């Protein structure tokens, strides 16, 4: 194995260039290094102007989502050995405006977040102690609670790339997390929101969001499950007398 490997990094510095460019960095080829380790080597030793996000280095925070050799992945979980002999192409996540280099703008996601009501909605006063749940009740929603907001699913989603009003896979999966929680009573209100044109019906079930998810959340599955529930409620509303839904 070679002693070095090349990172081809997308650079965009709005104060000095109108379009993104590419800059190559030759870094040590170490078996234990991830792409994030390589970028930190560039930042610390070769070029302090390079900008990118990272935090935990353990696949927990979701900060280091990037496009590496064409795929949306976490840089802290992507090993250089898997891309040997290189070069390794490192770009910002697709479908988001680029602020600088590998840093993207997430304002659209944050602005849409409250729309899905990502909190427990109670229809009665809270108990004197904590809410109690059986293990089976936790299992109902636990998968959808594993999202780390890394935005890989948005970068992989062709619908979000074309339809900017689309709520997106992570937000719909997050809504499903609360709908399936036995302590929550806001599922009807969320369904009204998610049944709008920019919600579940915008999804064409390509499935790239679930393939990109590093935590196995399966947002595509959550969306299809939501579509089924929406269809069932529509049928019930047409067939059953008012008040028996």
Provide keyphrases for this structure:
alpha+beta; 9 helices; elongated; Ubiquitin-like (UB roll); 2 domains; Fumarate Reductase Iron-sulfur Protein, Chain B, domain 2; 13% strand; 7 strands
Structural features, described:
- The chain has two domains: 101 residues, Beta-grasp domain (Ubiquitin-like (UB roll), Roll); 133 residues, Orthogonal Bundle (Fumarate Reductase Iron-sulfur Protein, Chain B, domain 2).
- It has nine helices and seven strands.
- The strands form two sheets. The chain has a five-stranded mixed sheet. It has a two-stranded antiparallel ribbon with strand order 6-7.
- The termini are far apart.
- The model has no long low-confidence stretch (mean pLDDT 93).
- Pathway: Carbohydrate metabolism; tricarboxylic acid cycle.
- Keywords: 2Fe-2S, 3Fe-4S, 4Fe-4S, Iron, Iron-sulfur, Metal-binding, Oxidoreductase, Tricarboxylic acid cycle.
- Its EC number is 1.3.5.1.
- It catalyses: a menaquinone + succinate = a menaquinol + fumarate.
